[in-house]
Amino acid sequence: MIKVHALLIAAGESKRMGAPKQLLPWGTKTLIEHQIEILQEAKLTVSVVLGANAESIQKTIVHLDVKVYHNDDWNLGMGTSISCGAKSIHFNKNHYDGILIALVDQPLLTSEHFQKMIDCFESGKNQIIVSQSDTGFTGPPTLFDISYLDELMALQGEAGAKPIIKKHQNNVVKIPCQGSLGDIDTPEAYQRLLKKANLQS
Fold this sequence. Notes:
Elements: E1 4-10, E2 25-26, E3 29-30, H1 31-41, E4 45-50, H2 54-61, E5 67-70, H3 78-88, E6 98-103, H4 111-120, E7 128-132, E8 138-145, H5 149-153, H6 162-167, E9 172-176, H7 187-196
Parallel strand pairs: 1-4, 1-6, 4-5, 7-9
Antiparallel strand pairs: 2-3, 6-8, 7-8
């Protein structure tokens, strides 16, 4: 049985949003609660990486079965948050076949998409499974074979895991996700996704 651990990256400041997007309402939950629930519905164990506004966000998820890690260098870019999360599971690497990197602000993704990524994953083949929108754009969530753990731990800067994907593009597998890759950076984007999910009041 394939064992994949999910790292939910939720450390950003949400500067363009003007408020912590992790705590935005999404249905009856906050955005971060919703994302954790979707990952767990896909039978994934979940660790959450927090940074900005960590104290208030952690209070929101204290009732959930997740491990929380704090990235003190969150302001230096997403790469540091992925690195923080990867280091947190370093000592348990023999328990996992892969690491799935998910972002807190892609609420249209479904547990079925995460399950499809896992179903397409073959352990020991150095795969990197990326998500592809209906317009051809590729990005997170991304599933890395555990063989990339050292490279994930070494990440820095704003580019996230893109340098690893570019370096090993011959090992990349694309999984379509039917237009659900939209993320939330601004109030306008938030309203747009709420409307798409039929969650507007």
